[in-house]
From TrEMBL:
InterPro entries, sorted: C1-like_sf, DC1, Vacuole_Formation_Reg
Region of interest (Disordered), ranges: 28-50
Keyword line: Repeat
Biased composition, class Acidic residues, residue ranges: 35-50
Domain DC1: residue ranges: 105-155, 165-209, 225-278, 548-596
Organism the protein comes from: Lactuca sativa
Protein name (Swiss-Prot/TrEMBL): DC1 domain-containing protein
């Protein structure tokens, strides 16, 4: 607690000093920002840039212990240049103790105040007969007859009380130093405790009692952790308040809070820290600064050892794993295409019935394009151009487009057109060679389940038909190591999540269990995990037509944002402890990662119901029709289910948020995609 000195006219002539001592009263300073006129008058946006360290007056010359604000008053000499101060209770102790409460251990003789001692051990140290602690150069009460010493600390114990704002009752100093759990921090301490004589379970260590009401975390952690606002000491974090804030975790150690223990919190944004984490400068806390939103980081690898290391997240939606490898490993990545298949700018690709033309800025394409202009993906203008291989946006040239410009919209990234036809020794299926296919021939609409990211897709894939094992083309080239901005400086190694003991481990992005995925990335030095979809499918920047500003991927609550977080797309509140996209400009809009992709077919009915880290159908291209013989007379369109589609005609469950088939002629007949699998009599195109 900070405090204010109030001078009074009370004087004391004390035998320990030549000058008159003046009584000074200490009044704790108010830190109630809610009732402070000064806080209310601050201009919006004005920041507190400095918080003073907690100070104490000095040490008492009689007991050599500190004088703190909770002592309420003390004596000091106004005439000495050197600080000379005494606790009020020390200064007012009589020279002789007779029938004193602290004299119960030796009621036969009077005890005399002295600086003498018995039982010298070494260097003028002596043992107190009450607490058995070694003392040096402090006053004591002694019985010269029995050669007994009682230090002045034990003699004044009954007067050493504390009125602390954390508790409604007065706290009494405990008579002996001990090892006990502190009710403030929950940790075991050794030393001086203050206990409530009414609530015997409540006791706090002196160190916690002296914690400042406000602090800047960088001043107390050697700048290992930083936050732009002062943190305020709170004496509890009620469960109902934690639930309202989605059970936030400490920004230092990433552990949850006990509702009865003290913490430091920011009044301007959702920043919380355990009191030990916010004030520790010791080595154990220096080993946990690698959590997202933490402090300084130290690299555990050399760049020269990893020249092609993938740094995540990708800059934007247009960048993906295939593009990264195409740029870094162009010679090894490009398939050997025969001259007759690749004549200049024309390409005969196995996945398409028409020749493809390479579109760039060359004028000689005019003969093919005619009067048609080259179109690129632009969500701000509702123009969608997605690669038919990876289903990622095409935002720049060159890229391949079907030469039948007027009748066919088939397009491929340059790197997707040059994929190798086979890959060997894939970490998820090393037993067999995986072959490149444009669609899964064994499933309706070419759908397959990717055994790496655990998402459904109908794009290009690498598969083993014998084992029905498929991975999308991005997951086919998973690196052994990556780095991620959310956990900077440390390598994240690829692990087989299905075989590792990860039954209780959560992805640090979406907080989903890793046992639900097959491949994940793990920092061996820390308890940090990312599933593949959060690590590789969430770009660092996203553009959306609902806002003219770009949205940045955030890993922690935003500074200067104390209100609840609200997704602008699905209009639901969300937990800012999970990753999200946020516009840092004046509009300050936010959205779920699963709501962020602009999928034009279903932009008003996005998937955020189950809290996955990415849009569930990010690898699915909707469209096309299917004829189901024996179930419905009309062809059915492949769509994403929305609320207005109602219930499935087969299983009677809701269609919203699922892949469905719907009759556009009847407008009332729809069923789940997987319910169609119950019928063996279907044809599709």
């Amino acid at each position: 607690m900070d405090f204010i000195k109030l001078a009074t006219m009370e004087q004391l002539l004390h035998f320990t000093h030549d000058h008159t001592l003046s009584l000074v009263h200490l009044q704790p300073a108010s830190h109630d920002s809610e009732n402070s006129d000064e806080e209310e008058e601050k201009e919006e946006g004005e920041e507190d840039d400095f918080v003073a360290e907690e100070k104490h007056v000095g040490k008492c010359k009689m007991c050599k212990e500190g004088i703190y604000s909770f002592h309420m008053s003390y004596y000091e000499c106004k005439d000495c240049d050197d600080d000379y101060s005494l606790h009020k209770f020390c200064a007012e102790m009589p020279k002789t103790l007779q029938n004193h409460p602290s004299h119960d251990f030796h009621p036969y003789h009077n005890l005399t105040l002295s600086k003498g001692f018995f039982w010298i051990y070494s260097s003028d140290e002596w043992a107190c007969s009450v607490c058995n602690l070694m003392r040096k150069n402090i006053f004591n009460y002694m019985c010269s007859i029995c050669e007994i010493n009682m230090d002045i600390i034990c003699a004044t114990m009954s007067q050493q009380k504390m009125d602390h704002p954390s508790h409604p009752h007065q706290l009494q100093r405990m008579s002996k130093e001990l090892v006990s759990h502190c009710s403030a921090c929950g940790e075991k301490h050794q030393g001086t405790f203050y206990q409530c004589t009414t609530c015997l379970w409540y006791s706090i260590h002196l160190d916690c009692a002296l914690l400042p009401a406000k602090l800047l975390i960088q001043q107390h952690t050697d700048a290992t952790f930083t936050h732009s606002h002062p943190l305020t000491l709170a004496y509890s974090f009620p469960e109902v308040d934690q639930k309202a804030k989605y059970n936030p975790r400490c920004r230092v150690c990433k552990k949850y809070f006990d509702c009865y223990l003290w913490l430091y919190k920011c009044d301007k944004c959702q920043y919380y820290a355990h009191i030990n984490c916010a004030t520790s400068k010791t080595e154990p806390f220096m080993s946990i600064f690698l959590h997202p939103g933490g402090g300084k980081t130290y690299k555990n690898f050399k760049d020269d050892d990893y020249p092609n290391l993938l740094h995540c997240p990708f800059p934007d939606e247009s960048y993906n794993l295939l593009r990264h490898y195409f740029i870094k490993n162009k010679k090894e990545f490009i398939t050997m295409i025969k001259e007759e298949e690749h004549g200049g700018e024309m390409l005969n690709h196995f996945s398409h019935q028409h020749p493809l033309i390479l579109l760039d800025t060359h004028a000689r394409q005019t003969s093919v394009l005619g009067n048609k202009s080259i179109v690129l993906h632009d969500p701000m203008k509702k123009i969608q151009v997605l690669c038919d291989a990876c289903l990622k946006p095409i935002t720049e040239m060159p890229y391949y487009k079907c030469s039948e410009i007027s009748s066919c919209g088939f397009v491929l990234h340059e790197w997707c057109a040059r994929l190798p036809s086979k890959i060997q020794d894939h970490p998820g299926h090393p037993e067999h060679v995986l072959v490149l296919v444009s669609k899964n021939p064994q499933r309706l609409m070419g759908l397959f389940f990717c055994y790496n990211c655990c998402l459904y897709g109908n794009s290009f894939a690498y598969g083993c038909a014998e084992c029905e094992y498929y991975v999308d083309i991005n997951c086919a080239f998973l690196p052994k190591e990556i780095t991620h901005e959310a956990h900077p400086g440390h390598l994240l190694s690829r692990i087989n999540a299905s075989s590792a003991d990860l039954s209780k481990k959560l992805c640090n992005s979406c907080r989903c269990y890793l046992e639900d995925c097959n491949i994940a990335f793990h920092c061996p030095s820390c308890d940090f995990y990312l599933d593949t979809e959060c690590a590789l499918l969430l770009p660092g920047m996203m553009r959306h037509k609902f806002d003219k500003h770009p949205f940045s991927l955030r890993y922690n609550p935003v500074e200067n944002h104390s209100s609840d977080y609200f997704c602008e797309i699905c209009e639901e509140n969300f937990n800012p402890e999970l990753w999200f996209y946020h516009c840092s400009s004046t509009c300050a809009q936010s959205m779920h990662p699963a709501c962020a992709p602009l999928i034009l077919e279903c932009e008003q009915h996005v998937y955020a119901k189950y809290g996955r880290g990415v849009f569930e159908f990010v690898n699915v291209k909707f469209g096309g029709t299917v004829e189901i013989k024996g179930l419905h007379p009309h062809r059915l369109s492949f769509l994403q289910g929305i609320q207005s589609h109602g219930l499935c005609k087969v299983c009677t469950e809701e269609l919203q948020y699922d892949m469905i088939f719907k009759c556009l002629e009847c407008d009332e007949y729809a069923l789940h995609c997987f319910c169609v699998y119950y019928s063996d009599n279907y044809v599709f195109n």
